[in-house]
Design brief:
Layout (H helix, E strand, L loop, with lengths): L2 H16 L4 E6 L9 H17 L10 E9 L2 E8 L28 H11 L3 E7 L2 E9 L4
Parallel strand pairs: 1-2
Antiparallel strand pairs: 2-3, 3-5, 4-5
Length: 147
Amino acid sequence: MDLRQVVASALPMVSAEARDRANLVSELGEVPPVLGDERQLGQIVINLVMNALQAIPRGAPLANRVTVTTRTQGDDVALIVSDTGPGIPEDILPRVFDPFFTTKAGEGTGLGRAVTQQLVSRHRGQIQLDNTPNGTTALVTLPAHID
């Protein structure tokens, strides 16, 4: 799979959520293919972008940004989703991948990040979060498939 095509196909599905929250930017660098299921890779992109968007309060879309980047990182392909939201509180950070854990009362099931982590693992990849008071960056690395 070309991860850039997966991202390009997924972003229109989240554009309505971005409208009132942030400028949605893609920086899709050329990357080698990855082995995987297109639907599952698309779900990873959608879940990460939706989490990033929902971390940003509605009302100032021109002042905020969610950036989706693809690039080569060593022998891997990297998918990076970064936002300019408030970051994840330090006391919550250890639990963000727990099933059914959510801070959005009345919204969502708390499964998005847990499912994302499972899908990344299924593709022999890794996911990590870099958190600051000025936003969060999710880094997914997937093994490149080189013939």
